């Protein structure tokens, strides 16, 4: 079973190549290939989650090279869960796009699958240079997807997105180079063993490398002050792509959680919990900036994009405390915010496509088609974004607040999370009333392109994304149980390191707790 | 040699960052290229600077140079080459569609022929 962990990387890679080479002229076949990939991925990732829950971390050595010389993939609860999250998201996004959006440009499905390959690879790899390579794979595919269908605004935003990420890639290489120069390894588990042994004279260099890498992950996770690329990119990307990008910020968050709990965690001696002092303030400011952006946005899409920035802040506040409870709470909120953000982008697209010449601007327009149904969906997605009961965001936020109670910054965290929730409610409430309630008072007619269709499939797909939020709420018990095991596994790195480096590797004890933990 | 390599990396990075911060796409592309050259040399130097030594340990060899950074540099070169090609094409496409080459896409500035748009 352990060998199956290569499937989420290899399958989309092969299918994407086949899609480009064999069926590039036939859209229907492209859709079939793409569907086969996402369904197979879904099945494999469900199996991987159950496998990881039963056996703990496992390693797959590519080319059977002995560690730490070869590249390894590592499957543990966290990476299995992230792969499953990606597969579910991808399946729904595929369903949304396979009717209308994929006609607007070439090679949508091939790029889509390359994107999945990159994301899955980034989640599964146990080698941080390989992580760079998978980052590049997912970024290259995302550039293509972001520009899918083109258009003036999309090109402008795409240019900025690419420049920011290319700069990030350069920084990534500098960070990797510094860490390699000091420790002589690229394997994360091996790095975890080497970091405590680094002599004092090299400590500054290692710290610089690790923090540069942290900066890069912060760009991906859109943490302030590296968030400027996100609103423009997400707001101008095609809707299904924006929904899929909901997982991209989580790749950054995952990398932070993985590398800085494993190699720079409690056993790292002088560099223990290296990023915690930077992460907490950055996360708090990110949350505030995101929610103020929600209030200030004049476009529906930009508003949703800022809400995504804010939700990253909430999640990273919880992660930055680095206690088992807070990480589990953060992971639950991450599952929630991925689906909530994706659902909101899809619903926003349903609204914008029906508003014709009024587009996404937050001004009143005449009644749109199916306004009742769309309004209900918007309402549900807005509740999810604002983390109100009864949907899963409320449970997530509650867990975060409860986990933060023992921190010395508990007051700050509580005030900021609750205060920004209020801003969020006001922002989405205002948008909803402008879009749906005030519309009856507006005279005039919406002009849409004559051949524009409003397929049921897109409404159903957006509904499925909302259904995921309901499922997350209903099954909150088992999911939270799994997440607590996940977080325990992250904090006790012994199993992970032994799975990669061999069963009898001596592992340093966890000696320090994170700075803001109590 | 250390001083020469270190200062050339520094110079490349400084020029790269300066160009990267310009407002037009062409200098930005040049800046990104300079930055990626700097990063490549930097990665190479992370395996320590050695002259005339093989990257493979043999019985007869008196020393060796670390081959891994060289492999990393190869990967980095391929990726940055591809990315440069992509961003050049995108910059051209943006210029042709929008009619100016500002990175933030603001229209209203003077165009390349000097006339006000």
Describe the structure.
The complex is a heterodimer of chains A (518) and B (117). Chain A has 19 helices and 2 strands. A two-stranded antiparallel ribbon of chain A has the order 1-2. With 518 residues, chain A is an all-alpha fold. Chain A has one domain (2-443, 455-501). Chain A is 71% helix and 2% strand. With 117 residues, chain B is mainly α. Chain B has one domain: Helix Hairpins (Orthogonal Bundle), CATH 1.10.287. Chain B has 3 helices and no strands. Chain B starts with a helix and ends in a 19-residue tail after the last helix. At the A-B interface, α5 and α6 of A face α2 and α3 of B.
Please give a handful of descriptors for the protein shown:
heterodimer; A: 518 residues; mainly alpha; two-stranded antiparallel ribbon; 19 helices; globular; B: 117 residues; Helix Hairpins; 3 helices; 0% strand; disordered C terminus
Specify the structural class of chain A. Answer: mainly alpha
**How many extended strands of chain B?**
0
CATH topology of chain B: Helix Hairpins
Strand proportion of chain A, as a percent range, falls in: under 5%
Number of helices of chain A: 19
Shape of chain A: globular
Q: Tally the helices of chain B.
A: 3
Spans of chain A of at least 5 consecutive residues whose pLDDT stays below 50 are: none
Overview in brief:
The complex is a heterodimer of chains A (518) and B (117). Chain A has 518 residues and is an all-alpha fold.
Topology:
The complex is a heterodimer of chains A (518) and B (117).
Chain A: H1 7-22, H2 27-55, E1 58-61, E2 72-75, H3 77-97, H4 108-124, H5 128-146, H6 152-183, H7 188-194, H8 200-221, H9 229-236, H10 239-262, H11 276-296, H12 300-320, H13 324-354, H14 371-385, H15 392-404, H16 410-437, H17 456-474, H18 476-491, H19 494-501
Antiparallel strand pairs in A: 1-2
Helix pairs in contact in A: 1-2, 1-4, 2-3, 2-4, 3-4, 3-10, 3-17, 4-5, 5-6, 6-8, 6-9, 7-19, 8-10, 9-10, 9-12, 10-12, 10-13, 11-12, 11-16, 12-13, 12-15, 12-16, 13-14, 13-15, 13-17, 13-18, 14-16, 14-17
Chain B: H1 2-20, H2 25-45, H3 67-98
């Amino acid at each position: 079973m352990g060998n199956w962990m290569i499937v989420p990387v290899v399958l989309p890679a092969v299918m994407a190549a086949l899609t480009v080479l064999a069926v590039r002229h036939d859209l229907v076949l492209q859709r079939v290939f793409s569907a086969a990939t996402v369904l197979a991925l879904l099945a494999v990732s469900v199996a991987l989650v159950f496998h990881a829950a039963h056996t703990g971390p496992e390693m797959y050595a590519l080319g059977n090279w002995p560690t730490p010389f070869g590249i390894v993939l590592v499957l543990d609860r966290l990476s299995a869960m992230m792969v499953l999250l990606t597969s579910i998201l991808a399946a729904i996004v595929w369903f949304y796009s396979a009717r209308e959006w994929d006609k607007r440009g070439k090679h949508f499905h091939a790029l889509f699958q390359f994107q999945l390959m990159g994301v899955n690879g980034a989640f599964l790899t146990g080698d941080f240079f390989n992580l760079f390579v998978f980052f590049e794979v997912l970024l290259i595919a995302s550039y293509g997807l972001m520009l899918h269908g083109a258009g003036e605004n999309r090109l402008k935003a795409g240019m900025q997105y690419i420049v920011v990420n290319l700069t990030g890639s350069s920084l990534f290489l500098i960070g990797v180079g510094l860490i390699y120069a000091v420790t002589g390894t690229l394997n994360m588990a091996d790095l975890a063993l080497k970091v405590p042994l680094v002599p004092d004279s090299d400590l500054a260099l290692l710290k610089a490398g690790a923090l540069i890498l942290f900066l890069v992950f912060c760009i991906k996770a859109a943490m302030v002050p590296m968030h400027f690329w996100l609103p423009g990119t997400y707001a101008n990307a095609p809707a299904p792509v924006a929904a899929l990008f909901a997982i991209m910020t989580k790749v950054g968050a995952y990398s932070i959680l993985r590398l800085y709990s494993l190699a720079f965690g409690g056993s790292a001696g002088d560099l223990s919990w290296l990023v915690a002092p930077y992460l907490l303030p950055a996360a708090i400011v990110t949350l505030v900036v995101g929610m103020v952006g929600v209030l200030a946005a004049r476009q529906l899409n930009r508003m949703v994009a800022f809400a995504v920035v804010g939700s990253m802040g909430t999640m990273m506040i919880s992660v930055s405390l680095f206690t088992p409870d807070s990480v589990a709470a953060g992971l639950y909120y991450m599952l929630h915010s991925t689906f909530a953000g994706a659902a909101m982008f899809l619903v926003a697209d349903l609204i914008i496509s029906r508003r014709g010449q009024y587009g996404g601007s937050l001004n009143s327009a005449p009644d749109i088609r199916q306004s009742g149904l769309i309004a209900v969906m918007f309402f549900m997605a807005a509740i999810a974004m604002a983390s109100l009961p009864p949907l899963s965001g409320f449970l997530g936020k509650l867990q975060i607040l409860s986990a933060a109670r023992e921190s010395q910054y508990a007051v700050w965290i509580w005030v900021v999370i609750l205060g920004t929730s209020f801003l969020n409610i006001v922002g989405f409430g205002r948008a909803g009333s402008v879009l749906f309630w005030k519309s009856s008072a507006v005279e005039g007619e919406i002009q849409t392109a004559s051949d524009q269709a409003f397929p049921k499939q897109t409404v159903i797909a957006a509904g499925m994304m909302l259904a995921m939020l309901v499922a997350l709420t209903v099954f909150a018990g088992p999911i939270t149980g799994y997440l607590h095991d996940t977080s325990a596994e992250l904090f006790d790195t012994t199993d992970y390191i032994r799975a990669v480096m061999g069963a009898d590797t001596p592992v340093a004890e966890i000696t320090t707790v994170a700075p803001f933990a109590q | 040699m250390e001083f020469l390599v270190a200062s050339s990396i520094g110079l490349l990075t400084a020029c790269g960052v300066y160009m990267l911060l310009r407002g037009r796409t062409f200098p930005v592309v040049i800046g990104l290229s300079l930055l990626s050259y700097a990063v490549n040399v930097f990665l190479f130097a992370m395996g320590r600077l050695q002259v005339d030594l093989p990257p493979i340990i043999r019985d007869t060899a008196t020393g060796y140079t670390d081959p891994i950074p060289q492999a990393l540099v190869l990967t980095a070169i391929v990726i940055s080459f591809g990315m440069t090609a992509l961003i050049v094409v995108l910059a051209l496409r943006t210029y042709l569609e929008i009619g100016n080459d500002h990175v933030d896409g603001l229209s209203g500035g003077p165009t390349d022929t000097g006339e006000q748009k």
